[in-house]
Amino acid sequence: MEYHYSDLCLANDHLLADPYAAEYTPQYLIPNHDAEYEVRSSILVDGGDRFGVTAAVFDKFEELVWMGNQGGHVTSYYGPSMQKYTSFQVHESEEVRDIITVEQGLYALTKSALRHQIRRGIPKNTYKSTNMTDMQCLYQVSTTKLLMGGHQDKLLELDLSKMKETVLPIQEEGCAVLRSGGGSLVACGSADGMVALRDIRTPKAAEHTFRAHNACLSDLDMQGDLLISCGFTDSAGVAVAEPYVVVWDVRCLRGTNTGVEGAWSLQTASPPLLLHFLPAFSGRAVTVSGDGHVALLHVNQPSANQSVFQIGTQSSLSVSVMDVSSTSQALVFGDLTGHLHLFSPQHNHEPVFNNFSRATEFADQVVGLPFVGFKETTFQFSTVPLPPLSSGSKWFNELPPEFFKKTFRKPKPIDPEVLKTMKMQGPIGYAPNPRNSRRNQIPYVEDTLEDLNAAKQIENRYSPQPIPKYYQKMDLRYNKHGPNDVDLENCNKTGFPGLESTIPNAYCNPMLQVLYYTPPVKSTLLAHTCAKEFCLSCELGFLFRMLDTSGGAPCQAVNFLRAFRTVPEAAALGLILPERGSDARVDLIALIQSWNRFILHQIHYEILETRKKEKEMALIAQNSPPKARASNTKHPGRSLATPNVNGQFSDEYQYTEIEFLGPSTEFEQEETREDGWPVKEEVGDAEPAAVNNENHELQNNHSEREESEISRLFAIGRNQLNRCLKCNKEEERDSVVLACALQYPTGAPREGSEARGGFVELVRASLAARRSTPAWCENCSRFTPTTQRGRIVRLPPILAINCGGPHEKAYWVKGAQKEMPDVAKRGGSGKPCRYGLHCARPGCRFKHPDRPSSSQASSSKNSPQDPHCVLPHQLLIRLQSDGDIIINDKSEQSSAEAHSSSNRVESKHRKKHITTQSEEEYTLSAAIVCVEDNPKNLVAYVQTSKEDVQWHLFNDLSIVPVSAEEVIHFGSWWKTPCVLFYTTSAARIATPETTS
């Protein structure tokens, strides 16, 4: 590959033309077996028939050799075979004095100019100056600085980044050679035989100056602290070449003119003209004389044998330049006859120039047509491409790209009869085979136009709904030295402050926004102060204060999350994520629901502990010692809280395990309740009252009857009644929970539960749980079937609802569950069950009084089902005197079936003379939603304005207004509710004190 480039538009008549290449074949050289090096290549360079070689160097980064001649032309050769790589002109008439290679290209120095070119021959810069009169040598100080010398009374230091020069005056008669031994000293040799050692950091003043030769200096080199030189001496007014090499130890130099103490000489067979150290060896140098005699010297051993060999030059006194590769495996010599000679060790026929050379860029090879004989019978003529047509048309054998696309046969859509008769068991559907195809036969869409159009319509109908951009997780990358990648002004134009998600455990940002926009909770936390070191209530109050004063600017919950990571209960519950990237590998739905329970109980505990401390401090201030408190009889292993000076307490709030298990791992056994709802219970417990899945008993604390502002807002009072079916022994216990967990049905829903009232029925059945499960009976002294019924004692001002785990996603995508077929159709009989209402067998085939009959099942089966699940905006909950509750959907979308169902239930209660104890109207105020994206994301719907009902979507820093219909619809595959908050009208505007 060759490049001939001349930016000056000069004629290249002096260059070697290809037709005459055969006249300059390398001559045959007899190898010398006594020498260490032997010739590998000897070529005539470009323009060698007219100009001699004046510069030759090895490339420091690639396997190239660079040369420059007297005509201002530069040529490079690749590898040990000296294959010509590039060739270009750098000056119209001046010879090339020196060349150095850098990472981006090379610098070629002529008498009055410095040329920078890339290796492919394209020029980048030409530097000229009035101070450049007779330049001679180059030295690279650093990646951005060059030092230039010549036959003039100054040195030039050039800054390559700014292209500015610095003039350094010198006392010597010019500078013909610049060499360094790898340290901070650089040797400057002048033509009159003087050598000056200068520090690279301060090159203006010479450190040492001494005379190396009497007449003039020919060449010098340095390796470490050793300096070698050769030159001429004055004999009767005539300059005579010295037949030896002088070795100087720069450490022994004293003064400015003396240096004899640290110098010795090495005799050579022929007067040396050029010399160079071998970089790969310590204390070895190579010298060459003008007639081509080369000698390898041992600098530290003057009496050692020298290896001598001869360069096949065309005339005497013609060797002009030499260089040694960094590996010392190659030597290059250039002469005035235009030849380059490459030498390498005798047994190394493939020398490398650098230890870690990068690949050299070559031109693309021109691919020619293959040669095929007339008698060839196995050649495939289709492999030869046809030439393009000039008119722009195509050949007949060129098929369109869609004919080469691999496609699979599309199956036909599922038979509507299968979908109609399918019954769901969790996420799995079962349906009888309609027998409209053969066994093991899969019907595919035929390649007819009608089937293709029908399949296309089905694809368009069931194409997945795209996820809006403002629901997706924002990937923020902050740039300290420039503008940010994300335009924060376009993400939030509402004026509400957002929370950044660039810190670990920031998945709880939606819950923090919900708590911030809940007025009673916000006022409670803002008024809370204590002396505890890591108090989450204090940190939440500080965060809310920062959000109030931010003016719409984004904030960071750094202090709160730092205190959150120190809570041991949070780590035990798995609420602390190790890294930010681990959010995609965890179950965010279960995580945020566990976090909701944890934060409510933690704030409740911290408020009670602060109240205790205030009472203790008040007693201390009155100089009356506090009375000794009795130990906790229910939990004898726990001690009472003892205040310390710094505000810490000796005991910690003990969380029960069953309260904070996630929805997917919260239970291990599953039973069926009397009304068809699932019964989930934890691992076997000896006490029948300890199997409630949500009842985290706040009375475990010493102050069992004390209430905080959080318990007044969120606590649901319950009375649990357990009755043994064998001995009819009954036990009662009171408990409170701060969050209600939905329990989804696996069988047929209760009578009166229509598709539109599916969510209402879920809430009702979850609040007033009724189930039958085996438990330990003290009277019977064994495990017996036990019925458990929960009766609501008190309704909270704020109803927090956990919507369950990801295995319940099918309910929200398809809406209300389909009816189970009647038991009689499955082969069962109409015989009543012997256990009646107390039957604990899941899927029992016998008749039960509270389950619908065949006619009812058939009629309910034909009732229309809403394909999307819609949350009610308002719930009217009535607490009856017997502990049961009635829930009505008061939103505008409530259907007449829901009203008729509630009327039937109310009439049944009136027949039993049961009165309404309390009635609360709840309004949806906030919702936490999981977006099934990659990665998953948690967002929050918050009703920011109560007067005109305005909703906003909070997605970390992105805050956008949304409609009320978008908040309540959950029919999309990518949106699943996690936590819902229903608030009464009194709690939305009142302080915590007034809600009690």
Automatic annotation (TrEMBL):
Residues 497-985 form the USP domain. Residues 622-634 have a biased composition (Polar residues). GO terms for biological process: nuclear-transcribed mRNA poly(A) tail shortening. This is USP domain-containing protein. Signal peptide: none annotated. SUPFAM superfamilies: Cysteine proteinases, WD40 repeat-like. Residues 853-863, 893-902 have a biased composition (Low complexity). Residues 622-646, 846-867, 890-917 are annotated as: Disordered. GO terms for cellular component: P-body; PAN complex. CDD domains: Peptidase_C19. Pfam families: PAN2_N, UCH_1. GO terms for molecular function: poly(A)-specific ribonuclease activity. It comes from the Eukaryota.
